[in-house]
Amino acid sequence: MIDSRKLEKPFWASKRLLCFLLAAVMILTAGFISVKRITITADGHSQAITTTATRVDRILHEAGIHLDDKDEFRLSTPKLMDQTEIQVYRAVLVTLFVDGEERPLKTAKQTVGDLVKDLGYSPEGYQILPGADTPVTKGMEIRLRKHSEAAKEAEESRKEAARRASLGSQVIETAEGPLAYAYVLEMEASAYLPSDGGGAGLTASGIPAGHGIVAVDPDIIPLGTQVYIPGYGVAIAADTGGMIEGHMIDLCMEDYGAAIEFGRRDINVYILQ
Fold first, then answer.
1. For residues 217 and 227, what is the distance between their CA atoms, to the nearest angstrom?
2. What is the C-alpha separation between 197 and 200, in angstroms, rounded?
3. pTM of the prediction?
4. Are residues 61 and 128 in the same domain?
5. What are the residues facing 217 on neighbouring strands?
6. Of 160, 152, 149, 154, whose CA–CA distance to 97 is shortest?
């Protein structure tokens, strides 16, 4: 008769061996599958998760965070590991002007310098406005100009400043540009036509009357003086009139309607240098 106890020993020995092997596999597997505690900051909020994922995109997916095409992330450690912090940067729309050409684009770069470098523009070849360290913000306008163009504009600005300085401290801005003047007279103004007085349209100076010619009292404004009158423009004191005495001035108009519309009024007359 076969002793059943002798048959049971190999069975239980095999079961113990199987359990031992399973435990060994679990121990070995635990050495390769590590649990990581990760902190994620996105859209102004931070959350901590525990994960065994080995890729950032999967970790973000577990956290319910979606990355758009131009969004970026940055790790606080050289590689993904326990206690790593993941910072998500959302792309914003900015407008780039390169030598005056407009180019809207989306970027998640954090500074103007990073964006310009990513686009392949060298700071050595371009003037960058605003500066390279300026944080990128939504709706920002970034301008790149070749250094040669920037130098040309700077030289033109310098020349314009020098020209203005040469005009003296009294300058008035006009449609004709800045004009230097010696002084201003408050005068009573009227309007006339070249045909007024039954003459041949010639002024007291012998030149034809027309827009840009004014009649004055030569004791107040010498004939030949250039003046500027707001709303009328630059003119020459080239005519006189029997009724023009003292601080009175008569502006020659092109047509009757313009003369009637102007009427009679008090004006400032700038005596140009």
1. 14
2. 9
3. 0.45
4. no
5. none
6. 149
